[in-house]
Amino acid sequence: MRNAKEKNMMQKTDKTAPRAAKAGEGAIKREDRTAGMSKADRAAMEKYAADYAGYLGIAKTERRAYAEAVRRIEKRGFRELSTFKTLKPGDKVWRGFHGKTLFATVIGRRPLEAGVNVVGGHTDAPRIDLKPVPVAEKGGIAYFDTHYYGGIKKFHWVAHPLAIYGRICRKDGTGADVSIGDAAGDPVFMISDILPHFGKDQASKPMSEGIAAENMDILAATTPDPGADGDAKDKVKAHVLRLLAEKYGVAEDDLVSAELEAVPAGMPRDCGLDRSMIAGYGHDDRVCAYAGLKALADLDGVPARTAVVLLCDKEEIGSVGASGMDSTFFENSIAELVVRRNPKAGDIAVRRALEASRMLSADVCAAADPMFPDADSTGNMARMNAGPCMIKYTGAGGKSGASDARAEFIASLRGVFDSAGVAWQAGELGRCEKGGGGTIAKFMARYGMDVVDMGTPLLNMHAPWELASKFDCWMTYRAYAAFLGAKER
């Protein structure tokens, strides 16, 4: 038995005759959208791309991405949540966790119980981590012992210049920040590989087995400690430890409480004769993180619904841990807003706010690569220069692990983006039973909110150097801006 509201909706739908479409109207065209750009739009795109490249060159780890994001939004008037006793429409607020995960918001006119608009991405990226006891000597060479992080092709990372970033924490509570490999005059690091002349056995193995994970140790030094005793063992290791002590004031046991990450050395660069692409490390997912942050900071006036950007850690290893999306950080942050808007609000107000919210899971997608047509889901793979791609479901095989957005939500977003003149496309992650993947969407969908993935198409995803179209980067920003500032429909 339908209730009155459902009857009215059905009657309205039944009485609405379908509008006759004009010839060619509504046809899906997956094509380059840059040809008709005005000079003003091209200038705006290039300016955006240059600023983004600057951010990407700084944000090489999740800690650095967090610090740079806070620096940028505070310049735009955002303040840390603890400085607010109450919140009112138009307030610009941020809240952080563990120096890695960030929640930033502009309070809207409507009550929080009406829901918030969220753009949520992540700032961790595939990399090589140093183990807790990293320094070892073998055959007169000192190495950093490593454990790779996230989904990588291991052979991408050997014989490639690397930089090391991170933080070493001493047991007295002090710490030292490490940054080696990108500043002028810095040395770089490298994982060695066997030369082709000796590599016949390696070449006969499957690509996934050609480089053993336990052999991905980073060359740290080759010379012994000048002050070591003649009979001392591991003199090269001792040299490494002495250099670390001199530069950072740490001992070997301090490395147990350290987070040290090896990432590709070098700054983002324009790619192609036409300079249409940006080559850089960590587009996945800092290209979406930056777009969301800038869209939030650039909001004009007070939005109807509270606008939120959420940037989390650990997505590349399953969104686990205290700083990952599979934690209560987002829920707790919404609760903090609710109580500052209405001190008498109870837990049910938080539940209502979560359930009524809408989210763009801001994560990149794979662009169709003409060199690998067997991976292409014909007509359903993102193309370069066609804008960000909306992916209704991720997962693998039979959509396993997907949240699968509902049709009504997709339709409402189409109206938002088209009204704002955003170039965008729809697709999925590769051919059935060959492609697939996961994002933070399913962790947000559990609250009952509407969620769909939408992000920038990439070539070389998860490689040390990924490729993104400048046009797609800029349109991703414009899509997020349209969503965060969308009027109520």
Provide key terms for this protein:
2 domains, 489 residues, 6-stranded antiparallel β-sheet, 28% helix, 9-stranded mixed β-sheet, Aminopeptidase, Aminopeptidase i, Domain 2
* Low-pLDDT windows of residues: 4-14
Q: What is the tally of helical segments?
A: 12
Strand percent estimate: 15-25%
CATH architecture of the largest domain: 3-Layer(aba) Sandwich
Q: Number of domains in the coordinates?
A: 2
CATH homologous superfamily placement of the largest domain: Zn peptidases
The major β-sheet equals: 9 strands, mixed
Descriptive report:
The protein is of the alpha/beta class and 489 residues long. It folds into two domains: 32-125 and 281-484, 3-Layer(aba) Sandwich (Aminopeptidase), CATH 3.40.630; 127-264, Aminopeptidase i, Domain 2. Helices cover 28% and strands 22% of the residues. The protein contains twelve helices and 20 strands. The protein has helices spanning 4-15, 39-58, 62-75, 200-203, 207-210, 235-248, 283-297, 329-341, 347-355, 407-419, 441-445, 470-484; strands spanning 79-80, 92-97, 101-106, 116-122, 127-138, 141-149, 162-169, 175-180, 218-221, 258-264, 269-271, 277-280, 306-312, 358-361, 365-366, 389-391, 425-427, 450-455, 457-459, 466-469. It has a nine-stranded mixed beta sheet, with helices on both faces. A six-stranded antiparallel beta sheet has the order 8-7-10-5-6-9. A five-stranded mixed beta sheet has the order 11-12-20-19-15. The chain starts with a helix and ends in a 5-residue tail after the last helix.
